[in-house]
Design a protein that fits this description.
With 296 residues, the protein is of the alpha/beta class. It is 44% helix and 15% strand. It contains 13 helices and 8 strands. The protein has an 8-stranded mixed β-sheet with strand order 1-2-4-3-5-8-6-7, with helices on both faces. The longest helix is centred in the middle third of the chain and has 25 residues.
Length: 296
Amino acid sequence: MKHFVGFFLLLGALLHAQSIPQQHFGSAKYVEYIAGDLPLILCSPHGGALKPKELPDRTRGVTGADANTQELTRLIMEQLVVRYGRRPHCIMSHLHRSKLDPNREISEAAQGHAAAAQSWGEYHALIEKARDTAIARHGYAFLIDMHGQNHKGERIELGYLHSPGELSQDAATINAAAFSSKSSIAMLLQRSGRSYTELLHGPQSMGALLAARGWRCTPSPQMPVPDEPYFKGGYTVARHCTGQTTGFQLEANRTRLRDTTVNRERFVNDFIPVLAVYLKTHLGLDLGPASTLKKP
């Protein structure tokens, strides 16, 4: 009997330890990394609010924040733990975009200020740490770079590093290796056994799975070619989604998705099971049995 009691005490301690996130911070706590056990990496570069006086304002480039994207990113992370008991890696910049833009080359991102440049370097170094951890454990990493936009049409934009003009080409061109090799999901294509057009807007694409739950999305079967303006994916996806790392940029519309707590919860309640199906279908990753998410 004592052996059984000891076993359950040990099991409880291990489960409790797994539920406590391991947090790491950069200098001055401008960058936060929450370590996970999944090969999934969530990044939030433009949701920070800090405007420290010691950092000068950026004088060129976009300086407005992507409102509520950090809250959305955290909610996805938290609900993965609630539903599956599994945690993604999560990297967030707490600096307002007027002070630092981690999703740009360093010259535009930090604009010559040493402390901002240090935080930029820490942000990408922590993504690389998460990537290396995921690859060592799972053989690959899947990255989603979380952003927000307010384009007309209230759609989610999925960026695979192609412009609308490039995506308007015929299927033979898009499916050719010369085109698909430039994608942020090139590794996913190699592992999935599907054509590239299927991954972009076929019935098991991320766009199709989201659209099936009522979220207007592009690329998708309903909108295989995005109209302008459209964010195709930026520096973070282009830099990190190579080799054994795959993924995309997710641009969430503001109205009816990011704008309120209820709408963010509504989206995440749909996104989590979509993500589970997507990862299992294309990467063979089974998140395990799911508990019921609380409805908003």
